[in-house]
Fold each of these.
Amino acid sequence: MSGAPLPEFKGRAGWEFTDISKLDFSAYPDTGEGDAGAAGVEKIVPDFDDAIRIVQVDGTTIELPDGLPEGVTVTSLEKAIADGLVPAGKPGQLVDSTKDVFVERNAADGRGGLFVHIAKGVQLERPIQATIVQATSGTTLNQRTLIVAEEGSKAEVWDQVLSSTDDLDALMTTIVELHVGDGANLRYVGVQGLSEKSYVFGTQQAEIGRDGTLDWVALGFGAAKGRVRMASRLAGPGAHGKVTGAYASR
C-alpha cells in the first residue's frame, strides 16, 4: 500500500460536508474470521422467499448457494478469484485503488466479498440476496462486490451490509463494480443498515453497455458518519441508468 492520506474536511473536492478529522484510521484493524453463531446471524438476516442466499460474517463467507441455474454464478469474490472464475481485467476495471485511502485498503484485503456472474442471454427469475454482517467492534470490514451481467441477461441483486448489534463501533469500506452488458437488465439494491456508531466509506461504479438497463437503488438506514460515492457510465447508444436513493437520519 502506498499510504494515501486521509482526505481533509473542506480541503478536498467531494469532502466538503464530511468531517473525519477525529477518525483514527489505524485504530480499526482489519477484521478477523467471522462466527455466525456469535453474530446471531439467524436472527438478523432477513429471509426472502425463493432468494439465492449468500452470507458473510466479518472476514468469513459462511453460507454459499447450491443448485444454481446454468449460467449463473453466485459465490464469494475470494473464491471466484481463486477458482479462476472472474473475467480478465476484473475486479479493478472500474474503480482505481491507488487514489483513495479507503479504496486502497479495501483492495488490499482479499477475503470474502460477493461475485455474481450472469451468462449471456440468461434470464434469472429468482432474486439474489447477499448479506454481510459486521460483528466485531473496533475493526474494519473491507467489503467488495463485483457483478457481471453479460449481453442480454437479466438479474436482480439485493446486497445488504448490517451490524450485529445496535451499538457496534466499527468501520466499513466498500467497493462495488457493476458491469451491465449490451442489452442486459440489472436491478441492484444496496442496503446499508450499520449501527449509528459505525463509519462507512466507499466507491461504487457501474458501466452500462449498448441498450443495457441498470436500476440502482441505494438505501441507507444507519452509520454515524461516512461517504459513499456512486457513479454510472453509459458506455453505448441506448444505455439507460437510473439511481434512486433513500436515507433515514435515525
Note: Residues 39-247 form one domain.
Amino acid sequence: METPQLHHCTKYDSLCNILESGAFWPSYCLEQSNFMHEFTEGAYAVVCFADLLSDEVKRHSTNFNSDSYIIMNKEWALKNGVTPVIYYYPETISAVAIRNWTRYCVNEKMPTSKNIEETPVTNTTNLMFAYMKQYEGVYFNNKKGDFSDDRRVFFLEREWRWIPFVENGEAYYLSKELFLDENIRKDKRNELINHDYTLKFSPEDVTKVGIPQIQVEDFRQKFGEKYKVFKL
C-alpha cells in the first residue's frame, strides 16, 4: 500500500534555487484563523510541505500554481523541526482548550533561547498558534491581492511546516497590513535569510524531484545524476 510522501511544490526555477543552495527559505504566508472566535489575519514565515499520495499531487500543484516538486525524507523533516499542523474547527476540543488557555496568557516578544523547554509559557503559546490551521476556509489569492471568494478544504493538504525560531526579534510574523506592503515583506524576509534562518538539507535527504518534461535536459546539465527525477 502506498504511503504519503512529504512534497514541497513550487516553480521549476525555485526548485533549482533550493537544490543549488541546499536550503529552503521561509516565505510569509497570509492566513485567516478563528480559533479565538473572532477572525484574525496575519502571516507567519514558513516553509510548507504537503503529505501527499501520488494521485493527489496534481490537484495540490494546480491549487498552488506549481509545476515542480521535491520530496523530502520524513526522518530529515522530524529531525529538523518540520511539524504537522493542527487542523481545527472553532468548536472542536483542541480549539476550545487553546482558547481557554490563551485567556491566561499575555503576548510577549519572542524568546532568546533556542531551547523550547526554556521558553516562557506565553511564547510557547504564540508558537503553537503558528501550527494551527482551519480545517477549511478561504485562502490568499495573489492575483486578487486578497482572500479568495471560494473555500478550500485545507485538511486535504495534510500540511507540515517549519517556522524559524528567531533569537533577536526578527519578524517571524507580520500583520496583514505589513504583509501587503511588498517592500516591508521583502525586507523582513531578507532579514530572516541574512541571519541564516533557513531549513538546510543534504542531497541524501531528497527522495525524488518532479520537473516538467521540457526542463529535463536543463536539470541534468545543472545537477547531473545527483537526484532521482520524475518527469511531469
Note: The helical segments are 12-21, 57-63, 74-79, 93-102, 121-130, 176-180, 182-194, 216-223.
